[in-house]
Amino acid sequence: MPFYKSDPIFGCKSNMENEPFYERFRCSLIMPLVLFWNVKDVLDDLNYYRAKVGVKPTYNILGGKNVLFLVNNFFGFETPFSVPPLHQEIGPILPDIYPDLSPSLSEFLETHPKTMYFTLGTQAYTTPQNYIILLQSFIELINQNILDGIIWSTVKTDISELPPFITLSSNISIPTSNILNNLFPNIFVMNFAPQFALLSHKHLRVFLSHGGANSCHESMYTATPMLLFPIIDDQNSNAEKLEDAGMALRLSRFNLDVNDIVFKVKRLLTDESFKMSAKRMQILAKINSKRKHRGADLIEVVLNSVKYRGNKSDNGEWNVDNSILLKDLITPDTRMGFIKGNHFDVLAFALIIVIILVGALGYGIWKLVYLVGKSVGKLISVRNYAYLKSKKEQ
Hints:
Strand order of the largest sheet: 7-4-3-8-9-10
Strand content: 5-15%
Largest sheet: 6 strands, parallel
Protein name: 1787_t:CDS:1
Structural class: alpha/beta
């Protein structure tokens, strides 16, 4: 992994390109050790299953130099870096078939041409107070005619913990149950929603999301600007990348504010640059989404290679040596060793030659200057002697 890549999980930028020295030092040297320590147990478990199928263990987070590593990502969303043949970007991996809109959802979207979709997915959740702030901002957005519809997929949200009333900026209180029971005409609340079908609809204008990878991929594929509310894992990194790409704005779960939400939704709707950036990312997402078939082909190649480059043990199980199995994709430097593989021996020899040549040239120049200086000194001495002698004779 290059030094200019890090992770917001540790308080670092994903792209360290414009960071000061201290941040680059901390995030490039210290935080990788912290990361390894935190995932060591996971790597131990992974190596246990590798051993069960005859694969050698590795403690490289990216799989090692002898392991095929398939990445559900693509450059343009991911910060680009040089990768070996064993590292294959095959994302975004998107299903070919998605569930369609229900009649009630379709009717809601048709009658609400400025709709925002909100969900925190199946793993992320926030505090009851934050949910109330979000619901209050939804009503404010509708009252100010910035949006005319909200679709909220609650998924695993425990709505029973929400406070009973939502107080607006006008000091009017609205029963939370009215919204949760779909008694508020401009807000549609449901448990699970057909997300891709929603994002594909022309009236879905903004996606308020936690920023999970699948949600980001689908939003890019459909060119839907995002308001991101990152909470855990890779979500902060995804939010940073989409914000840098120009198709998203970000909220803070520690300092959630109604006015900030209203302001940012308004920007996403009125600033044409967000839609243009989303369309640019859509092109990348659509083209790169075809590579999932290459990922499947690579897995098939490896599985079939076992028949020809693997060995069966006495009990009939395959013993696999990755350095042989994946030989077609392993760069020769991994077999040459650290010094030869990085050409350090050649570079060291070249450096010695340069030092010898520079030393010889420097010595030659010094010797020439010395001889010239000595000759000039003798000449001056002879002239001074002749001058003094002529003075005495006079």
